[in-house]
Amino acid sequence: MPEGHTVHRLAAAFVRGFAGQRVRMSSPQGRFSEAAQVDAMVLLGAEAVGKHLFLQLAPSADVDPDSPVVRHVHVHLGLYGSWTFAGDPGFADAHAIGAPRLRVGEREEGLDGEGELDWRRLVPRPTVRLRVAGPHGLADLTGPTACEVLDGAGRQKILERLGPDPLRPDPEGTGRRRFVAAARRSRTTIGALLMNQQVIAGIGNIYRAEALFRARLDPFVPGKDLSPGMLEGIWEDLVDLLDYGARTGWIVTTQVEHREIEARILERSRGTRQNGDEDPGVVPREQSFYVYHRQTLPCRLCGTVIRSRDLAARTVFWCPRCQSVRSRRAAWSREHPAAAWALVPGGCSEVRP
What we know:
This protein is α+β, with helices and mostly antiparallel strands.
């Protein structure tokens, strides 16, 4: 399932490609008849909250975003959903975001005919739930868990059941405090809490496993046993990691000096998708993670075998030696090793002095 940084990249792609333009909405698959309600409206903007995407549409560009006439196309990609883009050069700066998909108009054997296709002539596949087409390009949606048209009240109901999103602006620290308070009220394990979208929105299985390793924290310790400092440290680390992912399309949690150590990963099927996989400078998946999909392999730092176990309907991965912190009585401060890790431009990370 795409994690929160992916949905923020989607929102940015829609703003770049369609904002302020009148767009055509259609459902080639026929399963989204509500597309007719918003067809030929102007896309005012796009919003990401956790794993939810909202496309804001209105009859004209001068409509106030809070007006009752505004409609929101709400999309949750789920496990198999994906958006694919095609358009003029530079349009949306991406060809696909979400689960692995072919390019729009692409077949297994490659592009039709010779050279690049004219995006205006691309016929949607029968599996396309929604096609959004503007003057400079189009976006096709396939396989989403949710795709619906909402009014402002419907959008607000979804927001009210979500926890704070580390990628949303939080100048007053409200989101951080909400996360800390929700976790400390709960007897549920921190590994499960991080996957609970009502506690913190946008975190998926990769960020959960990696953030807990970076915090040296046992996934099975209850939230109520953790100090505010521990939880604030996890939040701040996730802000940095997700921000880097949103900017680059890469999930990279390893320090540069650790990447060549035991550079292996155990994945099924097609592997973990990185939106930057086509970039020659991307950090390989085998070097990107400390514990995710590294079960039975040695820990990059201590050599202990990485373990895995089901937790909150997904598999959690952890190092039983490195992740030994179990309670608020353990020392945690800004001097903690994980707190000193920060991603820097270019896909590298460093240990601050």
